[in-house]
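Hallway conversation turned thread

IA: we were arguing at lunch whether anyone had actually written out RNA-binding transcriptional accessory protein end to end. Turns out nobody had. So, for the record, here is the sequence (759 residues) and right after it the structure tokens. Reply here if something looks off.
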Amino acid sequence: MNPKHIALISSELGISGKQAENTMTLLSEGSTVPFISRYRKEVTGSLDEVQIGRIEDLQKRYKEVDDRREFIIKTITEQEKMTPELLAKLEETWVLAELEDIYLPYKPKRKTRATVAIEKGLEPLAKLLFEQQDTDTAAAETFINEQVASSEEALKGARDIIAEWINENAECRDKLRKLFTNTAKLTSKVVEGKEADGDKYKDYFEFSEDLREMPSHRVLAILRAENEGILFSSIAPVEEDANALINKQFVTGKGAAAEQVTKAAADAYKRLLRPSLENEFRAVAKEKADAEAIEVFAENLRQLLLAAPLGPKGVIAIDPGYRTGCKIVALDNQGNMQANDVIFPLEKNYKRDDAEALLKKWADKYDTAAIAVGNGTAGRETEEFVKKIDFGKKINVFMVNESGASVYSASEVAREEFPDYDVTVRGAVSIGRRLIDPLAELVKIDPKAIGVGQYQHDVSQSSLKQSLDRVVVSCVNNVGVNLNTASKHLLAYISGLGPSLAENIVKYRKENGAFSNRMQLKKVHRLGDKAFEQCAGFLRIENGDNPLDNSAVHPERYDLIKNMAEKQHCTVPDLMSKDDLRKQINPKDYVSEEVGLLTLEDILKELAKPSRDPRDEISIFEYAEGIHKMEDVKPGMVLPGVVTNITAFGAFVDIGVKQDGLVHISHLSNKFISNPNEAVKLNQKVQVTVLEIDVARKRISLSMKDSNAGGAPGQRKNQDSRPNNDARREPRKDKPAAKEAPLNDFQAKLAALKNKFDH
């Protein structure tokens, strides 16, 4: 393990060298991030998943720098140009751009204007001019030969050589890089004739902003428009400032030679330095914008995956439709399909009565506890129809976000699960299962298809996949899964498993029946000791041989808990069920070289609430009555809504009109800004005030600043209006908003990313 990597990582993350070294060791031994963060707290000093993930990323980055440095040193050494000073410079830098600057003069070149001039014998003239010792340009006449027709051609060739020297000067590039960092602007203009095609980008037709201050969504919007041929853009500081900086370093004299160097410097900047640095800063700006957009997407995905589940209950799921009817399925408490059919509740004839009769029959026959209605086309009308039915018992009706359900229904996973049914049935099943357990169902869908990010198709797809996969792994392991009911798709995300071992577990279940204890995992084909160590604590067994198997306590600590129980003169189940027995335990009495206080405290918390689900409890939400389409919405209305997406510039809210409205960040209330613990979250139920409606462009502008100031849902505010106590509305606790404050607690992470890239 490279000691320099340890020092760099500990410095960048603000942790001790021992924390960095121990974590890197665990990662190199094959331990996963969830396992390390939960079961190796003493070793890492309680680093969380984000910190451990950053260590993993930085370790890879510095390994890449090492590999590149090794190649560069080898190349320069083979050229017999390596010096102790040059070697020291190469070994001191850990930034790839700086490494490439040092290497540039030694990098094998293709034919350039400078190499052509050198071949013509003009390098001595370039050296004379570059020294600026009152060299008269008449000296150029002595370089006229068969390849150089005139003194002006000789001077031009010499300037080409000087321009390349300036371009390859690491000090000059470093100074210009700082100038770009501090003053470069991103400027965009519309391509002539593309004004109509690029109407949605019209804000950027004549646009300029300091690059270092630009938010990620604007950078990505301009780059997308450029890719579509609507805009062309540039990144650069003021040209006069750049030329002055170069001249200050290289123009050291006066007279004819200095004039030639000045011309060469201007050419070097325009032809070589600016394009190179512009490409570099464009890449950095894109990388920074990608990182921020991916961070937003990842946090949204986390919130969506950890959405409140209904739990193991019977559900009727409805995929709404007008002309083709509503596809319905009945699911048992594990999400297994029991029946499917098509109803036409939105047709005003006998079919409506038939639909009601069938739903009543199914509700009784399949012990239905809830009905899930997809929020797509005809969703609101179908929901209203179902709510009016008297089932003779309480059956809650939930609107379920069906984003990505069509992707699942046409996927290989869905075909494998339901080979005899078409996509419409599979889609309805997915809607119902999302209500029962969102996490278990959503892991079957490519996260990008869920649609909870911004510019997800424009960012680095490999970085996006890596980040989203980490989120899914984190969420699945945070919740834990039932070893005897989980699908192979869910099991695959458990620490230490993966698709192959997950499939082997499912196969073992089919051949041998349900697992009765965690140790039986070792009988699964190819599941060795390391995989068992990594996965066992995240797998749950209900009603098994050992009650600890239905908890997050790792099997490696079972003997410790047994020892605790013996000292309390009770059984392990007694210890888990009786608070007074646990309170008598002093965790400090059990501290050892293997087990520290942090782990012992976690164990006692888990014994108190074994297999606790970290997700919230599900709650019912209702849209405002009479609001079904954009034409029904008027400025000033106060409406209930559900947050469907969060971006760096605001939150999107579904108010039940098939088109989400935008609450710009400047219209969020203090509740969602000042307190990270109450920050706006995905699936959160909120009250919004309608600011503007643009039906033609399908845009709704909303505010959360003063949504509770008056009017019932769907009503306009007026001076005499008072708060309405309608039970459909969520109580408001927010205060007037401050302007343009952070949208969410993960904005702090975005600020940290910005600082990293600025640095």
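OS: looked through it. The first strand starts at residue 185 and ends at 190.
IA: good, adding that to the notes. Residues 707-751 have pLDDT under 50 and may be disordered.
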